[in-house]
Amino acid sequence: MKTLSPLFLFLLLISANSFLPPPPSASAAYHDYADALAKSILFFEGQRSGYLPPDQRLPWRANSGLSDGWTYNADLTGGYYDAGDNVKFGFPLAFTTTMLAWSIIEFADVMPPAELRNSLVAVRWSSDYLLKSVSQLPNRIFVQVGDPNADHNCWERPEDMDTPRTVYAVDAPNPASDVAGETAAALAASSMAFRSSDPGYAETLLRNAAKAFEYADTHRGAYSDNDIIREGACPFYCDFDGYQDELLWGAAWLRRASSDDTYLNYLQENGKTLGAEDNINEFGWDNKHAGLNVLVSKVLIARSSQEVLESSMVTLQSYKASADSFMCTLIPQSSSSHIDYTPGGLIYRPGGSNLQHATTISFLLLAYANYLERTSQSVNCGNLDVSPYALRSQAKRQVDYILGDNPKGLSYMVGYSDNYPQRIHHRGSSLPSVKDHPAAIACKEGSVYFNSTGPNPNVLTGAIVGGPSEDDEYPDDRADFKKSEPTTYINAPFVGVLAYFAANPDFS
């Protein structure tokens, strides 16, 4: 039998709409969310691959990966390196793009104009690359550039990399429902983000989203079931949780972006067979269930119960029920709560890069709170009703923990506050820049920098690292990549989260 922690027992005594702050820390209670927002977006410039523009704001980076795609006579330059390595993995890259775009869709109206522009630039750097990845559809989709095993055997700057830039492509009739479905979602969401500022580009994105989805649905299966792809994608970004959620996720985004009822019918007709009713309480690059349920619920929340009953949307109610159930698992006072927290109050799931869960879940809390508030609704968790305010309070606890309100008083965002990780697991950050050290640093020559106990010479401003362990400890060790490596998919949802709190800094 699991023993209830003292923190859990204490939380049971308080109101559902009043959540305790995390335990006292060495950091100040005030946070400059606007500064954190700007930095969270700036981080993506440090992850850029390809030709860098004149207005590149992290000057220690330079051009890289300029021949990507040549073995297929294709231009696959651009995009983002997923983390601290020099590989472009299509699966997490597409999810990153979706979440960046969703951040804009939900929170553009409260973003400062300069940061809205920077966010759109960050999305376009990725969506341009994704358009290239689907340029040979209907028969081929590019899913990765770079041999990760060779890359991970070296510690070298992206500007110097001499490891194979292997292109991994999936050709029909081989399956790629996961990557193609997520790419469809990313392009559809991006089309919504650009609809007002660049309608022509938005239309191009939406048209290609439909093509990607058609491949995903026609050739069903996981891309990593292909032996050749498995050699490159696994164990890093295999499809561990099945491809079915990406099919529904892609359809949901195409429905929202196009208002085409074809995709609504798809969600209704395929929900049960593709596992929409599997109430899996997770959201990230490999598992879209919780995000899917929140996204589909928006169309139901906006309508009255009678309108839903009188329309064909009644079959979508399972999505809304699952979204409500997911929210209840996050509330410590709820009888269905089962999400684990560290003693300091951070959402915790085993497996490494834990802050990816904290940022994605915080985003869903805020998005769902927005949907509910617009129609004066709450979530019924059996023994209590949970308001939008309560959901936002849970999100704020995660945000403040990440920014420094934690037992170590450490900001897990690099460059934010005076106390942040100095030795992150990131090649470009840890090696001297090409401007300071023009001579190439070969594969194994970088080991001396990897093994150094000194701080990284280049500050990857805005990077959110993997985060602390279940006991709130963080060693600031470059070699401990599960804790010290930043990823694009940790940062992407945090852009929207920070936009909300930057616009509502006095929320408490």
Automatic annotation (TrEMBL):
InterPro entries in alphabetical order: 6-hairpin_glycosidase_sf, 6hp_glycosidase-like_sf, Glyco_hydro_9, Glyco_hydro_9_Asp/Glu_AS, Glyco_hydro_9_His_AS
Span of domain Glycoside hydrolase family: 33-498
EC number: 3.2.1.4
One annotated GO molecular function: cellulase activity
Classification via Pfam families: Glyco_hydro_9 (PF00759)
GO terms, biological process: cellulose catabolic process
Gene3D superfamilies cross-referenced by the UniProt entry: 1.50.10.10
Reaction catalysed by this enzyme: Endohydrolysis of (1->4)-beta-D-glucosidic linkages in cellulose, lichenin and cereal beta-D-glucans
Record bears the keyword Glycoprotein: no
Signal peptide (from-to): 1-18
Top class in the EC scheme: hydrolase
Active site as annotated: H425, D476, E485
Keyword terms: Carbohydrate metabolism, Cellulose degradation, Glycosidase, Hydrolase, Polysaccharide degradation, Signal
Family the UniProt entry places it in: Belongs to the glycosyl hydrolase 9 (cellulase E) family.
Protein name (Swiss-Prot/TrEMBL): Endoglucanase
Source organism (scientific name): Linum tenue
